Automatic annotation (TrEMBL):
It comes from the Eukaryota. Residues 223-324, 425-463 form the Ig-like domain. This is Platelet-derived growth factor receptor-like protein. It holds the Pfam family Ig_VEGFR-1-like_5th. The keyword Signal applies. GO terms for biological process: vascular endothelial growth factor receptor signaling pathway. Keywords: Signal. The gene is LOC113041936. Gene3D superfamilies: Immunoglobulins.
Amino acid sequence: MFDILFVMIFGLSGRVLTKDTDTKGRFNSPVLDVTEKQLIIERNQTLQLNCRGRWELQWVLPSGVPKVYHGTQIEKTVCGKKNNQYCSRLTLSPALAQHTGSYRCRYRQKQHKQASVYVYIRDSQQPFVKMHSEIPDVVYMKEGEPLVFPCRVTNPDAKVLLVKESVSAFNIHRLAPDHRNIIWNSRQGFTIRTPTFFYIGLFSCETVVNGVKYSNKFLTHRPVNEILDVYLNSTGLVHTLQGQMLALNCTVTAAWNTRVSISWTYPQKANGSANIIRRISRSQTNMLFYSLLTIPRLSKADRGLYKCHVTSGPSKRETNTTVIVYDQPFIRLKHRDGPVVQASAGQKSFRLTPKLRAFPAPEVIWLKDGMIAAERCSRYHVDGFSLVIRDVAEEDAGIYTILTGIQQYGLYQNLTLTLVVNVKPQIGEKTVSSQQAGTVQRGSRQALHCTSHGVPPPQIQWLWHPCPPKGLSPARLA
């Protein structure tokens, strides 16, 4: 048979409960039948609390009391001489150590109006509210905020120490409350007002009851939200074929102690067409997080924008790429500026670039006058699918052919271009016939020669200038 503890209040507070009161200005907040801020009862006793107010009431119980607990009973009635008040009785039997905490009675519609009492349910075999476990709870140390080790106790008079544990028994630190930085509160546990890096590690709250040591273990974690970099294995457009597999790897580089969440958005996300695998590794300076998205067999519906979203606390980053899905492999090759192109002798470089679209990327070979261009002259080299000619000369003119092919699919296509190299006109003789001025007999017939070269062939024009008045002089030609 359980012991029963009935909490009865006499005197002034008793009159408050029994006297019917005017609703105006009274019971703005509910009223409990206890005036103390805390109660202490023993394990397995019965806890009974009564609450009265102007409106409908509800109870808020400590987290240690299960929502469905066979020992919890709540009785609701209307009360007062005019039945214009609401009363509610909470009964908890048997009361257990883990039920220690704040019991609140509040208005259902005005939840900020409430009355509360803190109840310790003393248990010499369970001095901490939380049951003992070898697996530590994680507590988070945030910058600029106090650090709390929530080792609440079932007896307000318990003597508790905070212990920093270590692999070596000689490095164990036992910390007592100092009322400045280390604050003890039996309802909250230990609070470190200004935590330093010393408080990162494994800690425990310890107390001794009847010669037996009890503890609650905690592992502190200092969360960091520093995302250094986010990148995909493919930064440009991703070209692929229908039926092939797609694999996109999102890599996140973050500072030590950072934890990130990686998610994807992609065209067929609603259908769950992608498989996602995550992995974490560490380098000497950073944390690396990987999220690999794969689609085993692509369809045309899978083409579109793929985004990798990364969050760490308030920090957010993202990167994306576009996937283009083709029905089948192809080569499309045509002239860019017509079949004849022109360059000028003396140019530092000239690029032959037709219009080429193909997938997968084809093999490319350039021919000049039927022979492999790069083997004919060291000034020729292939850049992508273009042929680059350095230090253009007249002998570079000719017929060029680009051969493209995708061997695995048996696709081939060729295109021929004619290169014309323009050469500036040059005169072969600085003077027409003789370096020395001479005289000729009047009326005789003379032949003057001018040799020139250029591409296209230059036009020659003769100009004659009359001699000066003082005797004969040779004609000046230009």
